[in-house]
Amino acid sequence: MAETFDTIFVNATVVNHDGVGLRDIGARNGRIAAIGSLAGHSAGEIVDCKGLHILPGVVDSQVHFREPGQEHKEDLETGSRAAVMGGVTAVFEMPNTKPETTTEATLADKVARGRHRMHCDFAFWVGGTHGNTADIPELERLPGAAGIKVFMGSSTGDLLVADDAGIAEILRRTRRRAAFHSEDEYRLEERKPLRVEGDPASHPVWRDAVAALRSTERLVRIAREVQARIHVLHISTAEEMVFLAHQKDVATVEVTPHHLTLSADDYARLGTFMQMNPPVRDRAHQAGIWWGLDQGVADVIGSDHAPHTLGEKSKIYPASPSGMPGVQTLVPVMLDHVAKGRLTIERFVDLTSHGPARIFGLADKGRIAVGLHADLTIVDLKRRETITNERSASRAGWTPYDGMTVTGWPVGTIVRGRRVMWEGELVTPSTAEPVRFHESLDRRIAPKW
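User: That's the sequence. What structure does it adopt?
Assistant: Structure tokens below.
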């Protein structure tokens, strides 16, 4: 019997949890309604995807969009515009704004700012601090909350919990998976004199591999002691990957495109524009991160999109801030690695869709399946394009990949069945909504394990 859909995407090669193959996808009321051959069925719009691949919507679980308080760098509209221009259908935004996202009121303010203004769906990490531990069981379950995020090492902003007791107290209160920026603040303070003015290549000397590994070892030990789940962000060292390979029962792992693509060799070319926390390191560490991705240790890829203005990044190191844009380039940079045979398209989908759904408990997203949101990232795996500053939709207006030619390009971004971006243009007004999580739907406090 013929059905009617809002939209049918036809002639596509669909990449999903059950393999890769030619299929049509029918969307109705924002959700996937049918998968397979849909010839003979009707729709308000039929989108021909011949020669293209349809992936489950890409989820970027670590972005900094700077609103409120630093809108001169980025805001929720411009950051999400960059996201959908890059094929990203949902983002989790970080708490180091001004004011910091550490209370029910500040979270609710961000949700209100994002709804129907951002171009992709969204959730917000809530900062864990010494002062809000008693509220964590409720904060992490509020609508729009991605969970609790803790900075163990100082970075951009004022959030910092460096001591074991503070970390343990936060983790005793969590029931969801908490995310951590893992660098040892005590070692960073000791090594500050190793920063060389005017030499950003000294950044990974100051924030060395030992600071990262020591912090991650401490974090895993505390998590085991209090029986909590943790997510270790932006792994930058080979040693951490080897260590975390044996901690998968308690810890999940994020990697970033810049740690997989750039190396210390690029400081001479990019200078402060490659300055990140934790730093981009030498090729031996880059190889170790790839090993972790190849061996299944890495669970997700996040961009760690952290924009600053050209003027701010042009300051003399170490006065220059750490961070670079990345949400718009996550998909093309990683698809270029696919084209070069460094990872498969199935593994890319696992890291950007299935992985976030699995470890964060997305209620409606992460797979192409009937009943889930019709969030789709449509790509041309053979298309060659050059990434440029001029193409940047971020308010920052620059990218460390300026001039890089890649194979693989996002053609369309579909959010809940609506074409938001198509061929580099915004084509639908924003209808963004908060991402829903399984562990937020039931507000009752459940046992940890």
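The chain has two domains: 4-54+372-382+403-426, 57-360.
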